[in-house]
């Protein structure tokens, strides 16, 4: 309970027509407890104390004013964090990260993330203090999680742009997300059909040709073939519709056609139409088998909707030089040890009839598979085999750390992307909540201070009791207004 403040009433009133004594007393009290909004350093050389999570930092107004568009650089924006009792600014934020934030002002724009602060935590602090967007990009690039801005060309036609955006970018709308989920379900269904139709239970036993059969006799059809055909037809209708709609609405059709994922989409569609044009006779059986095998490429359609497969693809693309080097080392080792084992074991009665025949043994030995179908018998051959296995382990192990490092880089990039999205959503939710509270508070205060005419005394704000005033006494010069703050 605060003590009572007494103010003398005068004949003047506020510009809005409110009684002067009551209005002036209220304004004096509000200015007393709202001093943080009017706080300003006397000059640019005055020291400023910033308390971050209990750790105090001291700097100058001139230092922070180098970036006036940021939270700390703007005196009006940081004023709400000012503690009048302790004469300091208080931020309940990450203490270790603030060293780098303050150094950004001191150095004139150099941002360096502390090694012990995780990238997503530091980025969140940079966003909170509203440092320029360039600072966020620098932190992301140094941490290896920066993503190049994706170019999203759009068709000139509005309706074609809506279709293209819906089919190409699953996060663009709720309909796009629904179609992406439906596409994943259809792809999964096609892969299940591809595997189940090879089970023996769904195949008919071969019926021998009866002796009195005519020349055009054919075995009875498999009843399950109709089911598989109808299901595959449904799958192909969706794949074809999706592919051709995206092709028609694509703003860059040549780039669309040569795209890796689009080539996979086309290869998953073509086997169905090729199979329709072939008869199941002896001359086309081998072609049908190849065509059916190509359907397995549908599994790669999942990479359009799976971040995990995209990480794997990016890792292989980034590690292409290391993979080529691995294959080159393996080819040299196969050539050397195949030649050595041939001269150590070779002969007409040996499994190593020639150096090309020994390539298979060298490959399975260097990769430490060791099927055992071909193996050296003599002592020199066994020595060559042991050296081949040891060399294979060393050869394969050399590029693996680089590949693993690339995978870890892309995986951490994905994790930080998810955490950054979560933090951004949480920050937006907090801002919306704060705006709602601020809006309700402002509307309440404005309704309390709104004076329509001079006949009624203004309503007291919450916690403030106005007493000692009667109707007709507002403008009396010999009366006093007593304001009590509860």
Can you give a write-up of this model?
This protein is of the alpha+beta class and 486 residues long. Helices cover 55% and strands 7% of the residues. It has 17 helices and 7 strands. The protein has a 4-stranded mixed beta sheet. Helix 5 runs parallel beside helix 17, helix 7 packs across helix 8 and helix 14 packs antiparallel against helix 16. The longest helix is centred in the last third of the chain and has 50 residues. The radius of gyration is 39 Å and the shape is flat. The protein starts with a strand and ends with a strand. The N terminus and C terminus are likely disordered.
Q: How does the overall form come out from the CA principal axes?
A: flat
Count every helix, treating DSSP H or I runs of 4 or more residues as helices.
17
- pLDDT < 50 runs, ≥5 residues: 1-39, 451-486
Radius of gyration: 39 Å
Through-space gap between termini? 5 Å
**What is the strand arrangement across the widest sheet?**
3-2-5-4
Count the E strands.
7
Biggest pleated-sheet summary: 4 strands, mixed
Q: Please state roughly what percent of the residues sit in beta strands, choosing from under 5%, 5-15%, 15-25%, 25-35%, 35-45% or over 45%.
A: 5-15%
- Structural class computed from helices and strand pairing: alpha+beta
Helix content estimate: 55-70%
Mean pLDDT: 76
Instruction: Spell out the helices and strands N to C.
Output: EHEEHHEEHHHHHHHHHHHHHHEE
